[in-house]
Design goal:
Blueprint lengths: L2 H27 L4 H23 L5 H4 L2 H19 L8 H30 L6 H23 L4 H4 L1 H21 L1 H24 L3 H7 L1
Helix pairs in contact: 1-2, 1-4, 1-5, 1-6, 2-4, 2-5, 2-6, 5-6, 5-8, 5-9, 6-8, 8-9
């Protein structure tokens, strides 16, 4: 495994843990059992990548050829379930705001990492000159798992009610392609994922500083 592959693998693991945690948190909040928590966690973590692989004609998708991602997502989901099951007060009262912020962090990290992983996958399969395709692959990899999670949990899809969510992924994918053409794969993935997280942080910072009534009306 060379340096680039190692960096990519580490980022994929971080993204898998982050997205699996966010999916598991949604499942626990919806009062699902351990199986439901695992299904939502795994779906959030690998769902976008599976959609991307099908679009690229990579069958079976990577989640089946290399089950390490599914295994990590399963373990992460179980850990989240145990923590929130033993400390149910984390979902109640003033702790609810902390839950929302942790959810934001996990979702933002996963979004940033999987957006650039999606772009990098398209590039590695010979589509470096196809900007629209690469941006689409990055965006669907970033938001696909969360979209499936929200549909299965019966909540409004995040990308439809949080406008900066999908837009952050699109911007990150464009930045990733541009940086790749000038600085290479590692710099593009690290830089673009940081851009996505930064956009999500700035959007959330603005939202949390709105008057309370405005936030409640938004929700």
């Amino acid at each position: 495994m060379d340096y680039q592959q190692l960096i990519t693998f580490i980022m994929e693991m971080l993204g898998t843990v982050a997205f699996a945690a966010s999916g598991a948190m949604v499942a626990v909040d919806r009062a699902m059992d351990i199986f439901g928590v695992i299904v939502l966690g795994v779906t959030t973590a690998v769902g976008g990548g599976a959609i991307r692989d099908v679009i690229l004609g990579i069958v079976p998708p990577a989640m089946f050829r290399n089950p390490i991602y599914t295994l990590v997502a399963t373990i992460t989901s179980c850990v989240v379930f145990m923590i929130l099951y033993l400390k149910k007060e984390l979902l109640q009262g003033h702790n609810r705001e902390t839950y929302d912020k942790v959810m934001l962090v996990m979702d933002s990290i996963g979004l940033g990492i999987f957006t650039v992983v999606g772009v990098n996958t398209g590039i590695s399969h010979g589509y470096v000159d196809y900007m629209f395709l690469l941006v689409f692959l990055g965006t669907i990899t970033g938001v696909g798992g969360g979209l499936l999670r929200d549909i299965m949990a019966g909540v409004p899809p995040y990308i439809l009610v949080r406008h900066i969510y999908a837009c952050a992924s699109i911007v990150g994918a464009i930045v990733c392609v541009v940086l790749y053409r000038h600085f290479g794969a590692v710099a593009s993935m690290v830089g673009a994922s940081a851009v996505v997280v930064l956009i999500r942080y700035l959007a959330a910072h603005y939202r949390w500083n709105l008057p309370k009534l405005t936030r409640e009306e938004e929700n």
